[in-house]
TrEMBL record:
It comes from Trichoplax adhaerens (Trichoplax reptans). GO terms for molecular function: metal ion binding. One of its GO terms (cellular component) is mitochondrion. The chain crosses the membrane at residues 20-38. It comes from the Eukaryota. This is Cytochrome c oxidase subunit 5B, mitochondrial.
Length: 148
């Protein structure tokens, strides 16, 4: 006969600690929704600290459950920045060897897509590296600049 872990239901208040049996769940985000991959009971030797930070009793909003890059993007959109990762299409003057078009980047290189002509049906991609200006096959000159 297996042990009945359903009897172990501690009621924790914010700040309380719990050591004991806990149900561990592995949940994966799939295109069709969330899928429970595995679950098992395990004994927690380290304290589980209850918190009142989470949302209970309702489904959290996008801003409450977002983390990482998704949270950065959501926060930027809420402040009015519609392109937080600077990925929008930029049109402007032809870049020359003397006056190349600047491409902002937070890194030492960036992948750049050049639409060489207004009627072009393809995009020419190149890796733009920090340092000297680089020329596309069509003649446009580009230079990587530090992003603000």
């Amino acid at each position: 006969m297996g042990s009945d872990h359903s009897r172990v239901r501690p009621v924790l208040k914010p700040g309380d600690e719990y050591r004991g049996w806990a149900l561990l769940l592995v949940i994966v985000r799939a295109p069709s929704g969330f899928v429970l991959v595995a679950h098992r009971w395990a004994f927690s030797f380290f304290p589980i600290v209850a918190s009142d930070v989470g949302v209970t009793g309702r489904i959290p909003s996008a801003s409450e459950q977002a983390t990482g890059k998704e949270k950065f993007e959501h926060d930027a959109m809420m402040t009015g920045n519609t392109d937080p990762f600077d990925m929008s299409f930029h049109e402007g003057p032809w870049g020359t060897a003397v006056n190349p078009r600047g491409v902002p980047s937070h890194f030492d290189e960036r992948i750049l897509g050049c639409v060489c002509e207004p009627e072009a049906t393809q995009i020419i991609y190149m890796t733009l590296k920090k340092g000297n200006p680089q020329q596309c096959d069509c003649g446009h000159w580009w230079k990587l600049v530090e992003a603000k």
